[in-house]
Design goal:
Elements lengths: L2 H27 L3 H9 L4 H19 L4 H21 L5 H17 L14
Helix pairs in contact: 1-3, 1-5, 3-4, 4-5
Length: about 120
Amino acid sequence: MNNRAMKITGNVLAAALAVLFGMSAFLKLAQNETAVAQAASIGLDARTYLLIGVVELCSLVLFLIPRTMVLGSLFLIAYMGGAIATHLQHQQPIAMVVTVQIVLWITLVLRYPSILHPLVPVTKK
């Protein structure tokens, strides 16, 4: 895949993730009744759920700013790790959260390919 295609694909995935995390954060910050009731069913009170929404929104903002994209990606990846653990703890399906986690990693690599340099040794010809 050439650089232009990687950049376009990365930006499209980033936009999709921005919509997903933006809607999720909005539901938490707006204290949507259904979302708060669902959070209560796993033991989260409304204040904790609001705090999680603030963390999610701050991570998303960092993810969208090119200069802080790597940090925001890592925060969102950690956030999704917590979501995976919570789903596992409450015997809920994890396919969706794992998929989002994978898309986050792919987006990070597409938008910042040099992140792989410490992981993948470069052979000299």
